[in-house]
Amino acid sequence: MKIGVFDSGVGGLTVLRALLPRIANAEYLYLGDTARLPYGSKSQTTIARYAVSSSQFLIDQGCEFLVIACNTASALALEEIRQTAEPHGIPVVGVIGPGAAAAAAGTATRDALVVATSATVQSHAYAAACQRLGLRSLEKACPLLVPLVEEGWIDHAVTAEVVRLYLSELHQQAAEACLQPDTIVLGCTHYPLLRPVIEAAVAKLWPGAPPRVIDSAEATANEVERQLAAHTVVKNATTTHLSPPTSFFATDSVAKFCQLGTRFLGQPIGEVKLVDLGG
Ligand code: DGL
Question: For the chain, which has fewer Cβ within 10 Å, the N-terminal or C-terminal residue?
Fold first, then answer.
């Protein structure tokens, strides 16, 4: 089984990282469309065009299963990607449904918060997915977080302050909407890297009963594992190296992909091939 994992950049490596120990008997192809990142500030038409050409690349490489690890592409282009993949019999899993399902599974109050890129929030894809599962939700765009993570400012005081400001606004908006959130979904591939910073801010804003932080990367890997259960023969949650064969592709600097990607994947990245998908 060749599994293609696609993201606008390196953030989707958090999904690959979650997949590798769960489905270790697959071959992985990861594409980061780094030349056209960020998707999160672009229009639906542009995001769909980029996402479809990226998915087509993975299909051309022989992928038999597609994981859309990018929240923005999942929110705005999943239908177009499916129309591209399904004639080839290729199943497509995005991150929004699994993220919302994980929120629904963990909430007692049925009120959830979602932090994501501007495009994802404007699409209200998370709100719709939450509503289908009987949850009220409040979405918050946090556009500065992707560039801060891209800059490698993970443990930086500026990042902690930006996170605090976004979450303070969200806290106030939730109170105004009379929500009692006990769950906050990280609706962007980059945010899991900021999880400790986000959890620290959440603990201060909601002392006593801080909302539980949900990582859509973990939830997505669980969904892929569920769909591929028949193919799963090796499970080793303690795997610390890339045991399944994995090929990496990027549309911009392979050196930057290797350097930043190592933080997202949690282990060194081998060879990265440069591909040109056009503009
Ligand atoms: N991968 C995007 C997401 O998960 C974040 C980066 C971008 O804006 O392209 O929404």
Answer: C
